[in-house]
Amino acid sequence: MGRTSDARERLVAAALELFSERAYSSVGVAEISARAGVQKGSFYYFFPSKEALALAVTDEHWAWQRADWARILGGDGTALERLRSLFNATAKYQADALQGTGSVTGCLFGNLALEVSSINEPMRTRLQEIFDEQVAMIESHLAAAASAGELDLADVHTIAKSIVAQLEGLILFAKLFNDPAQLDSMWANSLRLLGLKERSAA
Amino acid sequence: MGRTSDARERLVAAALELFSERAYSSVGVAEISARAGVQKGSFYYFFPSKEALALAVTDEHWAWQRADWARILGGDGTALERLRSLFNATAKYQADALQGTGSVTGCLFGNLALEVSSINEPMRTRLQEIFDEQVAMIESHLAAAASAGELDLADVHTIAKSIVAQLEGLILFAKLFNDPAQLDSMWANSLRLLGLKERSAA
């Protein structure tokens, strides 16, 4: 069933799909292997357990998302415009998932944080690192904007964290209501968290 | 095993504990029955399925939390002071869970929203109603504060939703880091979302 050469990649891709579609706990090795077109016996050649695969999926998805965030935050325009582009890209990701699968998949890291962190310490540690990195990326972006005179912030770290928390909260609503438009207020809410009026950056 | 008279209540209480401790998908009828001290055969006298029990747990937990929110938001002090008391009570609930069980349990509704809403339509509908009610409670509280001259808000509904999203995002961090102190910034963040400076309500 399929080429062995890319079986590991196919297992990771299948698991990302399945963990996005349904609860981690409800997805088993047999189903992941079937979706990947890999024999179940071969699964254990690549991963000792579903937990190990989930860590690999988490790492690869964050490597992709971190690169995407860095590209967008390092793009053209003012710092505020680039921040807004990041939120637009997040909404588009959810809208694309809805169009492709019929479901807003939400944030893989948020889904796993609520479902798995209390029973899986290695995953908890990894997700803590990822959210810390997300906050650090936003924080350094805001600090650069402050240096450029675009912002005047008293506590950049807390504000960066409040923006990531706001994004996770709205993505939760987007998943629950199966509606990417739940993210439409992200920009206005972020401007408030940044102490700016909406019109000043419209 | 135990009195039949309160077996239903004990099943609901046991399920609330287990769904708070672990993923919904990883908890079965046998374990819930054992925790409740109810024979598994008797479970089906009260509930046709785990899904039906989960809806009952969700309803009863929201009935309790809604009454608690109403009591706090209708208490003494200014509208802003009462809103702050609500966030303090939320942080205390998580701190009590940590002290009692060793784990920050997070928000039952947020946990179920991310894990179950994509595979269980009755639960999705119920959780949508609950989050809509939470937003409506905050919205009407903010509208009353605006009428009393404590606030000047352009879009009360969006701001109420941003506050509930912020709370869910920070509760996600509290669960992930197993640390109720993640909620410490909730008040400062809410003041920003309300367009107020921290010192004005300190």
Structure keywords:
homodimer; 202 residues; mainly alpha; Arc Repressor Mutant, subunit A; Tetracycline Repressor, domain 2; 9 helices; elongated
Polypeptide structure, described:
2 copies of one chain form a homodimer. With 202 residues, chain A is mainly alpha-helical. Chain A starts with 6 loop residues before the first helix and ends in a 9-residue tail after the last helix. The mean pLDDT of chain A is 93. The first copy, chain A, folds into 2 domains: 1-47, Arc Repressor Mutant, subunit A (Orthogonal Bundle); 51-201, Orthogonal Bundle (Tetracycline Repressor, domain 2), CATH 1.10.357. The first copy, chain A, is 70% helix and 0% strand. In chain A, α1 (7-21) crosses α4. Chain A has 9 helices and no strands. At the A-B interface, α6, α7, α8 and α9 of A face α6, α7, α8 and α9 of B.
How would you summarize what this structure contains?
Chain A has 202 residues and is mainly α.
Write the topology of this structure.
Two copies of one chain form a homodimer.
Chain A: H1 7-21, H2 29-36, H3 40-46, H4 50-73, H5 79-101, H6 108-116, H7 121-147, H8 156-176, H9 186-193
Helix pairs in contact in A: 1-2, 1-4, 4-7, 6-7, 7-8, 8-9
Name the structural class of chain A. mainly alpha
Low-confidence stretches of chain A: none
Q: Overall mean pLDDT score of chain A?
A: 93
Supply the number of structural domains of chain A.
Answer: 2
Top-tier CATH class of the largest domain in chain A: Mainly Alpha
Number of strands of chain A: 0
User: Helix content range of the residues of chain A, please?
Assistant: over 70%
SS field, number of helical segments of chain A: 9
Looking at the overall shape, the CATH architecture of the largest domain in chain A is Orthogonal Bundle
Chains forming the largest contact: A-B, 47 and 47 residues
Rounded to the nearest angstrom, the radius of gyration of chain A is 19 Å
Helix and strand succession of chain A?
Answer: HHHHHHHHH
Assembly status = homodimer
CATH topology title of the largest domain in chain A: Tetracycline Repressor, domain 2
Look at the structure and name the CATH superfamily of the largest domain in chain A: Tetracycline Repressor, domain 2
